[in-house]
Structures are given as C-alpha cells and as structure tokens.
Design a protein that fits this description.
3-stranded antiparallel sheet; alpha+beta; 27% strand
Length: 184
C-alpha cells in the first residue's frame, strides 16, 4: 500500500472514530436527573417502578409476576421483620413486611443502586429528589446536632403524601423507602 493510500485509510478511520465518539451517548455521570426516574408517589405512597409501600404480599407477587419467599430479616428493622428480594428492571429490590402473612403490606423497600444511581452523588440524588417532590425536607438526625445536610452520609428526606414517609440514601449503594420511624 502506498503512503498516500495509508494516509487516506488513517484519515478515514480517524473520521469514523470521531463520528462514533460524537454520536455516543454521554457517560452516566452526565445524565443528571435520571437516577430516580422510577421513584414516584402512587396513591399518595412512595413507589419504585410500580412497587409501592402498602402493597400486600399477594399484590406484590402479582406486580412482580413471581412467588415471593419471605425470610426473617437478619438486620434489625422495626418495620421489616420479614424480607424478600426480587429483580425489577435490572435492579434488586428488597421488600420488607412486618409479618409473613399473605395480607402483610410492604412497610419498607430497599432499591440496590446500579448504573445511573451509582454515578450520582449524594448532592445529585438530593437535587433530583427535590425536583421530583418539591416538598421534600431533609430530616436532621437528632443525635448529631452539628451535622449539615451535605455532610450526612446517609441522608433521610421526609416526603409529603398520604401518610408520613421518607426516603433514605446510602449514595452509590442503595435507597430505602419507609415511614420515618423505620429508620430509627
């Protein structure tokens, strides 16, 4: 291959690479406002992708399309003595119930972060939460009077709705939905 042909091939390949780079979607961290896109209020209660607080075990199984096996929660949680896990839209949800009865209702929900959620900082999550729920208020931990919101490693936010409910973040790891009293 001649030098001119080689230069033409390199130039063409460089042009193709540039076109691909320009046409590629931006990195996840740049996609602000998408980490909490499946968080909503349904019937005045917090939900993630259609799975909301207050759904019975049977309703949860219907929504998820599978039978859920409850086990005792290894963690101490006054609202979720029994838990089960299910995959929803590529994320792992942990549903917490006060009892193992079929009529027991979801009292606590944890969403394990992946993708956009991992790329979002605590500040990003808080901003997106407030954009989604303008009445959201940071709950100042009583045990830490000098703590400011930006230094809170697992901030909790009160969300207006049908009954007292809150969202707690462990940025880059998970989000929990429950009554504020469930967070101790």
């Amino acid at each position: 291959m001649s030098g001119v042909a080689r230069s033409w091939v390199r130039g063409t390949l460089a042009g193709i690479a540039l076109a691909c780079a320009v046409a590629s979607p931006p990195p996840l961290a740049a996609q602000s406002g998408q980490a909490l896109s499946k968080l909503a209020l349904e019937e005045g209660l917090l939900s993630w992708d259609g799975i909301r607080l207050g759904l019975s075990l049977v309703q949860s199984e219907r929504k998820l399309g599978l039978t859920l096996a409850l086990s005792k929660n290894p963690e101490t949680n006054p609202c979720a003595k029994f838990v089960t896990e299910a995959e929803r839209g590529g994320l792992t949800l942990t549903l917490g119930y006060a009892s193992p009865k079929p009529g027991a209702k979801i009292a606590w929900l944890r969403v394990r972060f992946e993708g956009e959620q991992i790329a979002s900082s605590a500040r990003d999550l808080a901003a997106e939460l407030r954009a989604r729920f303008p009445g959201a208020e940071w709950i100042h931990p009583a045990a830490k009077p000098d703590l400011v919101e930006t230094d809170d490693l697992s901030p909790t936010y009160l969300i207006p709705g049908k009954e007292p409910q809150a969202v707690r973040f462990a940025p880059r790891e998970w989000m929990e939905l429950a009554a504020p009293s469930c967070f101790g």
